[in-house]
Design a protein that fits this description.
about 240 residues; alpha/beta; Rossmann fold; 9-stranded mixed sheet; globular
């Protein structure tokens, strides 16, 4: 088994999933799209994971590689048909690439918050044996406004209707961060654009407050990450 990972900034990688992949002896290859690395041929890969990043899905002039990435995602879903997992920007790109739309998230969701599974989410294999209400890290000012055709909404929050979705039978994505590690908030807070967004939403103490909230919920977050990873991998067997 081999997984292809699309990255858009160095600090947003598969996070705690790297540990799980190493334990299972699963190879994964990252493509640094923001650094101009080319997208490889898909023949040798069994799943595609698309991570987060600071850019918006429509910022193609500033990030022209987004055009090729969307084309690749569309081909992966429509022609390859193998499992897909998108996180944050990867969630938005899945929607945009397949004919959905994204728009401003108002208010922005930043911090440790709850998401709630829909009835379809409770029944979906990606969330098997997971709680209906889950603590997670949010860090986004864009949302999926209109999901693509053949989409099932799997989780929502008070301010964001499409927190998780499944497109068809093999593509899942989450607006929130399921890959959180104990040092994620601290690492992301060192990125000026990320810190600025957090402080605009939560005030001058936003970074420290978010780190404290994440620490308090870390055991539950990591347990949910492990279960979601197991569920995804079970679906690939």
């Amino acid at each position: 088994m081999r997984i292809l990972v699309f990255k858009h900034i160095e600090c947003e990688h598969p996070g705690i999933f790297r540990k799980f992949l190493a334990e299972d002896g699963i190879q994964w290859d990252a493509v640094e799209l923001d650094q101009g690395e080319p997208i490889p041929v898909f023949d040798d890969y069994d799943a595609l994971w698309v991570m987060g990043g600071p850019m918006d899905v429509w910022e193609v002039e500033e990030n022209p590689w987004l055009v090729a990435e969307k084309q690749a995602i569309r081909r992966w879903i429509n022609q390859i048909g193998k499992p897909y997992l998108g996180v944050c920007l990867g969630h938005q790109l899945l929607a945009d690439a397949l004919g959905g739309t994204c728009g401003p998230q108002n208010p922005a969701e930043i911090g440790v918050m709850n998401v709630q599974l829909t009835e379809a989410g409770v029944a979906d294999p990606i969330f098997r044996n997971m709680p209906k209400v889950q603590k997670c890290l949010q860090w986004h000012s864009v949302c999926v406004a209109q999901p693509p055709e053949n989409t099932t909404v799997l989780a929502s929050s008070d301010d964001c209707r499409v927190q998780a979705m499944r497109v068809g039978d093999q593509a899942w994505s989450m607006q929130y961060h399921v890959e959180l590690e104990p040092d994620t908030v601290e690492n992301w807070g060192a990125i000026p654009a990320y810190k600025r967004a957090l402080e605009n939403a939560l005030g001058a103490t936003g970074l420290a407050d978010t780190k404290a909230d994440a620490d308090a919920s870390m055991a539950q977050i990591l347990m949910n990450a492990r279960q979601l990873y197991n569920n995804f991998m079970t679906g690939m067997k």
